[in-house]
Write a structure and sequence with these properties.
CATH topology of the largest domain: Beta-Lactamase
Distance between the termini: 169 Å
Strand content: 15-25%
Structural class: alpha+beta
Number of domains: 5
Shape: elongated
Number of helices: 17
CATH architecture of the largest domain: 2-Layer Sandwich
CATH class of the largest domain: Alpha Beta
Strand order of the largest sheet: 2-1-5-4-3
Length: 757
Amino acid sequence: MIMIMRGIKERLLFVAIAPAALVALGLALYFLGLRFSDADAALTSRGTALAQQLADAAANAIPDRNVDELTRLARAAASQPDIAGIVVADAAGQLLTSVGTGPVLDAAAPHADRWSNLADDGRIRLFHAPVRPAALTAAVPAAAAGGVTVAMSLAAVQAHKREVWVVTLLATLALLTAAAALAHWLSRDIAVTAAELEQALEKIRSGHYGERVPTHPDGALARIGSGVNDLAAAIEATQRKAARNLAEREEELARQLGFAQAMLDAQANSGIGLAVIEDGKIVFANPAVERMSGYNLQQLRDMSHFVEIAHPDDRELIMRNHLQRLAGAGFEDRYDFVLLRKDGGMRNVQLAQTSIAAGNRLQVLGILVDITERKQAEAQLAETHRQLLTRKEEAERSNLAKSRFLAAASHDLRQPLHALMLFAAELETTAATPDQKRLSGQIGAATGAMGELLDALLEVSRLDTAGITPQRQAHALGPLLESIADAHRQSAAAKGLRLACVGTQAWADSDPHLLRRLVGNLVANAVRYTQKGGIVIGVRRAGGNLRIEVWDTGVGIHAEQLPHIFQEFYQVGNLERDTGKGLGLGLAIVDRIARMLGHPLHVRSALRRGSVFGVSLPRAVPAGAKPAPSPQPLPHAARILVAGESRPELESLGNLLENWGYRVLRAGDERLLRAHMAAMPDLVVCDERFMAGLARALAGRPRPRPQVVLVGDPPSGPLASVTGLFFDGRLAKPVKPGRLRALLHHLLEEAAERANT
């Protein structure tokens, strides 16, 4: 009996323990499966969501290749503890940025949408999301511009699984222990509890996560029920979290969809047309295309081929590019064509195309921009430019013809004007009565003004026709400025003005002859327009350059007149064209010389306070000191030979020199020239056209030879040799008697000093 009771007890114990053990094992395995699946699902959901969030955030940065923004996004996301690394790459698989180390660095290659895979070491799971432009609707997905790959560590998930495994194992052992200890009365309670458990689990399995097991009064069964309830509560919490995440994703997707639609509407409102072409037909067109073409969407869809909206002359180009795009060959992805409107009008349109994948079909997205107004503006601009070029060429030809005419006319006028000035000078020396002296003075002044005008016009013409080539060299500014000041001190003193030159040791890189002419004109202009006060000439340092400045206390120039003062014949306050106030060509010559030398001009002025004219020029390294000019010697009588072909000029010039006290020899041909050379003249004044004969006459003459003064057209550069003969001085026709007398005086005194030494 005892054995039977024992057997029944054992059977009862077996019957009690076996179901409990099976139930506990089943619950444990089910719980483990659910928890493991929940952990993996949570990891997958979180990794996919994070990769997609980063892809959405990088949608604008990847096309712009904004590496700094991409790196900032990646670092911000990688700060989470279970993120092993992040990689951002473009559509070609080229790495743009990466955060983290290990297998994630090898994940730059492009993958399929929502791609996920374990790394080789099994400790990291990779999640990939493509980056698509935000300007396309969901019905028209865009080609991926790149991809974002997120690597998440499995360490936390695996630790959680181990914890769940241990807890489940311990709970199962506890259940089995409790079942064994209470086996003698489990036959009743176990059956009830098993039914309740089975019913609760079935409801939980069917989705009723709020189902709970009734509380059993027995402690062991109560713990089992509590464990099942805890399991159901955990499943319910996971389901709520998953539902919340799904709702957030749906909300984000709706927001992105709204943003994409807003972008499309904005493009359409701004005139950017979008059209999708499939199998040669238009399947979608935004309102901008409808306005551009005059067709509605349905009419565009009804066209047999999309090239029908293009001008017949452009259809071949459009079709060829379209077929090459479909075949994967090279093509023009941006070109212009003429669009035919429904009303018969034409619009110039620029078309840009790109391919998009739509399942197993290939679609072409066309972006159309109306450039009709731009084409019209370009044509108008080209025509205006052509007209301006034509007018510019005509003006240049006219200006060149004017300059050539002035040069030729001045050359032809020099001979009679030269003779007239000599006659006037001779008349002044022989005038006996006051009326004759007054008349001769007026004639001299008029011929002098005419000579100045002729010199100025000829210089302007030579500057305009590139008749002068600058000879730049390093030279000292001090002696040059001092000589300019000396040349104008007498005229300044005659008006009661102070003329000062501030000494300088600076050297400049320029043409000294042209620079002398430029600064001399500025000083002459300052003397002419200054009635009281004075003029100062000086040099300032301006960075690595120098600036010569001429200050005066004259009448000043109004700001509105400053842009015009460098124009020919433009004078401030000389509407009556009084030649005593100048000719209006001095500053025009200054401007031309400055542009020829590449020296910028500067001018500042204030009414009734004066003006400052400056010219900037580069500094130069000193090349050595220059000898100081010798003092002006006193005049003395000498034998001078005058040679020339013009008999009137020869007589007038000879008479003028004789009135000055010189002994004059005249030679109108080469025979007389050779004869007079035997008389050993001290100086020869020769016409430029007679220089060849003079050279032949001096060829066999022993040294020392007489000094030679050349009279002719103004030189285009520094003094040079003529027909192999070097001359000591040169005067331009018409010769001013004062200049001729000073030059003869200077040359003869130099010759006397050399003879005494």
